[in-house]
Amino acid sequence: xxxxxxxxxxxxxxxxxxxxxxxxxxxxxxxLSIATVSAVANGAAWVPEDTRRRVQQAIDQLGYRPNQLxxxxxxxxxxxxxxxxxxxxxxxxxxxxxxxxxALRESGRTLLLSDSDHRFxxxxxxxxxxxxxxxxxxxxxxxxxxxxxxxxxxxxxxxxPVIAIERDYEIDGVSCLLVDSELGAYGVTRHLIEQGYRRIxxxxxxxxxxxxxxxxxxxxxxxxxRALSEAGYKVNARLVAEGNFRYTGGREAMRRLLAGxxxxxxxxxxxxxxxxxxxEAVRAAGLRVPExxxxxxxxxxxITALTTPALTTVAMPKRQLGSAAANLLxxxxxxxxxxxxxxxxxxxxxxxxxxSGAA
Length: 359
What we know:
This protein has helices spanning 23-29, 34-41, 49-62, 68-75, 91-106, 120-132, 147-154, 181-194, 215-230, 247-259, 272-284, 318-334, and strands at 80-85, 110-115, 137-141, 162-165, 174-179, 200-204, 240-242, 266-269, 294-296, 313-315, 343-346, 349-351. By secondary structure, the protein is α/β, with parallel strands linked by helices. It starts with 22 loop residues before the first helix and ends in an 8-residue tail after the last strand.
């Protein structure tokens, strides 16, 4: 009887490398210690620039590729960054995420994205799942996590750096990137006043639940009220309507304003999605923008330049926020994950278009 051995494996396809270049080989090539080469491969900031160039040249010549899986198992933290956003349907947030993703990719990191859908219980669950997945850091965009949940997380000994965008958590260890919403709202309201409008209404964010603690909600109302006060007007409670930062919320809020005893001649909606919903409500009532009611929004999402009429709005520095979050996170990780809190303020810019009655 002839015994047959195990089948001989097929040879690898042409061009497939037969072995993996090791860190030791890179160290021998540039005559440095393995520790120094490892530090360069991991982006350590203390390595001198000339040494970094030597190591990088050897890495390129030998074709060394770090084993990301092994590195993640060793450190219990991978190269992924967890991102929790409050509403993925809002183009304002997707533009920030796009910029964040590009900046992280340049530093060799990837992005794990989750949506809280304006529900704290989902945001809290996402935080727990991402933290158990050993991400390198966390970026929170909008009003997505309860304060007590995040506070408990950053107190854990194995927590990672956390960057919050447009939410001022005021928690030691959490860095916050914010936009000066009070000044921006003051500017757009002053613009409406200068156009000759006197009954200027506002569609604000929610006063309770998710969205109510977004940094810009209260600040935009304060800027609106300050501009009216300086012009000699008082805030008219009948011209204030609460929305939910979504298209349907803006539509319903505008319907309530139109049904009131004193109809506004201009309305400032505290984000563009609500402004677009308000524009639909105005048209459904047989009225025109801006001839019957002027309208202004906030965020400058791409579609606002394409509406008829084009929407006057306040531009948020979306790309800056995303890239700044990535840069700050990388800085903290290069320092060994040190949670030194940073609070950085960005400026908003008024974008005047036809919906406010401007030429």
